[in-house]
Each structure stands twice: as C-alpha cells, then as structure tokens.
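Long-time lurker. I teach an intro course on protein structure, and each term I like to show students one example going from raw sequence to a predicted 3D structure in token notation. This year I'd like something fresh instead of my usual example. Would anyone be willing to generate the tokens for the chain below so I can use it in lecture? Attribution to the forum is fine with me.
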Amino acid sequence: MTELLQTIRQYIRTPAAQLDQLASDRIQQEIAFHVGERTLDLMSDGMPPDEARLAALKRFGDVDQVVQQCRQETQGGLALLHRIHLAVTALLAVSVAGLFAFFLIDRQSHRSVATLPAAITSLIDNDWSGDVAGDVQDSHGNPIAGATVIVSVKAWPDESFNMRSYRTTTGQQGRFTLSGVTPQRDYYEVNVVALMDGWEMQSQYVTQTTGGQRAPLRFTLEPATRCLVHFKDESGRPLSGVQVRLKDRIASSGEEHFLYPGGARHVTLVSDDAGRISAPWFKTGDRVALGCRYRQEDWQTVTCSITAPTINVCLTDGAFVVSKE
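-- Reply from a regular --
Happy to contribute to a lecture. Here you go:
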C-alpha cells in the first residue's frame, strides 16, 4: 500500500526532472522517426543504407541543438498537459462510476437502456454491403480476362463525405465483382475504370439516387496504340525511377475517361534504366494527362497528345515538359 501511495504522489507532482527527461525522450523519438522515414525514402531511390542515413541526418541539421530548443519549448506544454491529464482521469473515473451505478439501477428497475443517437445508428445501418459488378469484352463480344478494374465510390452518409477506392481483375469470362463496397440506403456515385495492356482505357461514371444494388456494367474496349513515354534530364540523359500515374484520357470524339487520385495509386508505373515506361492504353488522337514524380518530389501533371509512338518528356528546372523531338 505504501508503494502504491508513493507512486500516486509521484504521478500527481510530476517533478521537473521527470518532465525534462520525458521531453528529451519524446523529441529524440520524433527526430529518429523523421530521420528513419527520410532514410527509407532515399534507399527506395537506390541510395546505399549508410549513405542514405548520413544524407538524412545532414538534411535534418544539428540534432543536439534541435533537441535543446524543442525541450525548452516543450517543458511548459508538458506540465500543462499533465494537469489536463489529471483532470481528464478524474472525470473518467467519475463517469465510469456513474455509468456503473446507472446500469445497476437500470437492471434493478428493468428499464430499457437508452438508444444510440440517430446519426450513429444511421452509420451502423448503412454498412456499405452493396456490390459493383460487370464484365469487360472486346468489340466482337469476346471476354477480356486479366483486365484491371478500379472502382472509386463516393457517398455522403449523414451529410459527411466518404470516398473509397478498390482494385480487382476480371476472370476468364471477363467478369468482375467487388462485394461490400456501396451503401444500401444512401445516394452514392461510382467511377469504374477498365485497364488492359493493348486496349484503350475506359471509365464509366454512374449515380445511384436511392442506394442499393446497381445493375452490372459492361465495358467494350477497342485496340489501343502502343506508345512509350521517355523521360530525360536537361542533358538528354535518361531518367530512371520516375513514378507515373494515369489521370485522364480524352478521346478524339471528346469523350472523357478518368481516374481519381485514390484509384490511380493502384496503377503506379516506374521508368526503367532507359527512362521509359509503356503506356498501352491510348489511341492516336487521344489527349492524356499523367501524374509524374521524381525522387519523392511533388506530383506534377503532364498533358500531351498521342501523335507518335514515343512521347518525350524532359525534366527542366524541376518541372516536367513535353518536348517535340
């Protein structure tokens, strides 16, 4: 009992030395986390582990000085947080005791337990158990097996926005099904994209005003024009490791097919040692938009027209530019 009382007294007082040590430990853990993340990013770009860690530490700066500055700024905040924590702990203890007493009284008097708020019960009831299904075929009605299908579902349950993206592939009969991805009662919108090497990219955007099950979708794909995207630096040297995501395709007819960013992450390409990626989803005359990123920099949008078998893209002053060569 004496040891328990001493522990409680130490917790309530929170000596300054304990705060100082706690602040130092937390700051060093935070710095180690960020240095580790940066090291992994550099390693994913091909840098050896030792060099990656040294580069990450160099970019961060003087660690000891950062710890000292942060510790001085944090001590006051930690003390305040500790007082708040004591108050919240006391409040929770009182609440738990009150709930326990309530359920005892409720059980004795056989009263019904209070129901959940309407907003919460609505979210529980709308369990997103609807399916998205369909098939992919060519212009002759032959099924296309192994096609990538990306589904992005948007819904507004209880006036709050919710968007989810999923990926699947077609089976031997060209069919696909994603189960449990749409709400059963709420209005929702869904964008479905079909991708297969050698065939044009297509998307269908549909709405369901009353929730529930949607009729199966059908994609009829036409052969695509095979083309390459070639990335170079200002000196004309190939850029390997450029990440590329498909964003948008506007056919010569004006019909638009697109991918939401959450769905595009399911189809991320990386340029090879020659700086090239294959883009086998477009037709001559299409206008396309690609998301491009090099060495963990910000994503940029590259827009071009499909007029030749190769699209040349040059990285100039940190910006991707389509060249005419």
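Some talking points for your students: Helices lie at 2-13, 16-44, 49-60, 63-109, 118-125, 261-264. The chain has six helices and 16 strands.
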